[in-house]
Amino acid sequence: MGLHLHGVGHFHPEIEITNRFLEELDIGTDDAWIQRRVGIRSRRTVLPLDYIRTTRNREPRAALEAALYSNAELARRAAEMALARAGVDREAVSMLISGSSAVDTVTPAEACNVANALGLQVPAFDVNSACTSLFAQLHLLSCMPPDPARPFVLLVLPEGLTRTVDYTDRSAAVLWGDAAGALVVSTVEPGRAQIHFSSLASDPAGCDKVRVRRLGHFEQQGRAVQAFAIRRSLQVLDGLCRARGPAERDRPLHFIGHQANLRMLEAVCREGGIAPECHHTNVTEYGNTGAASVTTVLSMHGEKFAGEQDVALVGVGAGLTWGGSLVRFKGPA
CA-to-CA distance for 308 and 301, rounded, in angstroms? Predict the structure, then answer.
């Protein structure tokens, strides 16, 4: 069963962490090193730059207080864009599902904070799977039977991951940015695009490879995670290619992968046969925005997909987890 996609939205905070700013922190990195390793030039943050400069975010608990945007506020802004693009009044939303890598509140569910910010009184709950939260949400919804009483579901993916970064650790500092993505989907109302296929898998033996402990810093076994991300992204991409019908395989397949870093994405495209003009990304300017990353790219590049276009969405993340969805556009931008 396919889900109908009606609208996509995104939001990035205005405060920018440039490579020059990271150089000034004197943590053993510079623009050339960062570009060579991960291909990122800048990223956005919910934290004041003076806070990062003076504290290096040694205490993530304090970052919650210092942040200029809560996760709920990030999500609200992305959701309002998605609803406006979908032409759907918020009163028509019948369910809200949130997912992220580092929630503001363990209790209540972050979805309740977002629903409150939007003024919605609907069932609201979290489906958190770190950077693959979007795919966990879509996979869950694809298993639900069509329900006319639930015409539109709002999916939100807020990430304030810079609050978890130790800014004395160059391997983490160069990667992370903050953002939110949102989608308006339906199991019953036809939309401009349809999600024809979804997959979700995990290898919990790798649960220690990427971590954010409660009120702790981001931790990652970089080389192992990079190899995993490339291998599983290619596996998911191959599955999405196979999910296309014979007629669709003759047209180009667009690709939006998890925005872990540009070099990883380039390797996936090179080995997966994705043409440069079919690869869509924003990691160079916004960094790795976790669960929000794929949705923000889809939102920023959605006007390119007019007529019959297939887009492979691929995600990998902590857990270790991986998943994908095939989105088929069939109408004007």
Answer: 16
**Residue 165: how many CB atoms within 10 A of its CB?**
26
Digit-coded pLDDT (tens) for 208-264: 888 888 888 988 887 888 888 999 999 999 999 888 877 777 788 999 999 999 999
Instruction: Give 311's contacts (C-beta < 8 A, 6+ positions apart).
Output: 253, 254, 255, 256, 298, 305, 326, 327, 328, 329
Residue 268 contacts residue 230 (beta carbons within 8 Å): yes
Closest-CA residue to 9 (of 239, 151, 257, 179): 179
The answer to whether 193 and 185 have CB atoms below 8 angstroms apart is no
Residue 280 neighbours by CB under 8 Å, 6+ apart? 254, 255, 256, 297, 298, 301, 304
Dump pLDDT digits (tens) for 164-217.
999 999 999 999 999 999 999 998 999 889 998 889 999 898 888 888 888 889
- Pairing mode, if any, of strands 3-11 and 193-202? antiparallel
Compute, in degrees rounded to 10, the torsion defined by CA atoms 212, 217, 221, 225.
50
Largest CA distance in the chain: 58
Instruction: State the amino acid at position 15 in one-letter form.
Output: I
